[in-house]
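Hi everyone, sorry if this is the wrong subforum. Our group has a chain we'd like a structural model of before ordering constructs, and none of us has done structure prediction before. Sequence below.
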Amino acid sequence: MTVGNTENGLGRLFRIETDTLVLRPFGLHDAAAVYALSNEPSSQNWLPSQVQADEDEARGLLKFLIKQYAGPADPRRGPFVLAVDHRDDGALIGHVGLSPFEGEVEIGFAVAEAYQRQGLAVEAVIATCGWALGRFSLPRILAITAQSNRGSRKVLTRAGFEHQEDRVMCFQATDQTVSVYYLSGTKA
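Answer:
Right subforum, don't worry. Here is the predicted structure as tokens:
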């Protein structure tokens, strides 16, 4: 996998390019696609807290995420979420992001149903983690997923994350068993 990274003179990320994907900051023009992606059955099932009621709500979310790019952007202090575009057709197919969680930095991701089971989530997670571990000098990155979400667990394992434990916690607004993973900064 080839990862290209383009930054401006201030060090702000413009894009991460892989063989198949372009990871880039969101823009307000993404509102319709974000709304549609959030309402796919897999998003409603696994990420109910991220389902948008309409395009206006999606636009409000995007305004918040866009503000987070302002310097100095740092996932230890606030969310840093990137759009995932498919290189071949230019479609916005998901997101990958880093956010603070209990003193750690957690990665989250979602890929449109039509693009799942093609290794694209793995590619996005690997590219984001490789970039973030170096950019922010992180010792490791945390990932939490519902234990029953076999697809996300498989993505994390394929991306080099190691399973640490299963535990019950409030996740996606309900108490449930989750699987906790870590990617060490020395492995990326």
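For your construct planning: Residues 120-135 form the longest helix (16 residues). Helices lie at 31-38, 41-46, 55-67, 120-135, 150-158.
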